[in-house]
Write a structure and sequence with these properties.
By secondary structure, the chain is of the alpha/beta class. The protein is 33% helix and 24% strand.
């Protein structure tokens, strides 16, 4: 759920990159961070193990302009994909405004992709979202999808622009109804 600060006239939205371990979630955020000008990004925080796998989350505050006179900031998070971090994934999903599911394109990772997507459905249900009725937000049968490579950056910004646009359109809709 977006946080609105009327004092500072800021709206903060949370986007979580979700998927199996080593699918490219952190690398997506690292690419976004490396390509943004300093004045449009905050500090990137990353917690990793000795083998460079994210333990908790990567956090990247991102300034993407204004909506109805409010500055919009996006906080991008990743979840740890490893199965034994199930509780941490639930915590990171709390208050989410948008989810990017990052699948591993290797055919040998199909089982892990399916397991991770099922885990996402379950965790969203626990957050009070019915994955079957999230048609406008997640639309499992027709979501915008992008072939992307976090390693070389292809498709990474297209993915971020798409999810940011979906979140902002959801924020704009209630404001338009109130006018």
């Amino acid at each position: 759920m977006s946080v609105v600060n009327y004092g500072t006239r800021e709206i903060t939205c949370k986007i979580v990159y979700y998927g199996p371990g080593r699918s490219g979630k952190t690398t997506n955020l690292q690419h976004v961070y490396s390509q943004l000008p300093e004045e449009r990004k905050g500090k990137m925080v990353s917690l990793a193990t000795e083998t460079d796998r994210t333990l908790f989350f990567d956090f990247l505050p991102l300034d993407l302009g204004t909506i109805s006179g409010f500055a919009t900031r996006f906080q991008l998070y990743t979840v740890p994909g490893q199965v034994y971090y199930a509780a941490t994934r639930k915590l990171v999903l709390q208050g989410v405004d948008g989810v990017v599911f990052v699948a591993d394109s290797q055919s040998r990772q199909l089982e892990e992709n399916i397991e991770s997507l099922q885990d996402l459905h379950s965790n969203l249900a626990e957050e009070g979202f019915d994955p079957r009725t999230l048609d406008e937000t997640l639309n499992f049968r027709g979501v915008p999808h992008f072939s992307a490579s976090a390693i070389n950056g292809g498709g990474v910004f297209e993915t971020l622009r798409s999810i940011a646009s979906l979140v902002l359109s959801r924020l704009s809709a209630p404001a338009a109804k109130e006018s």
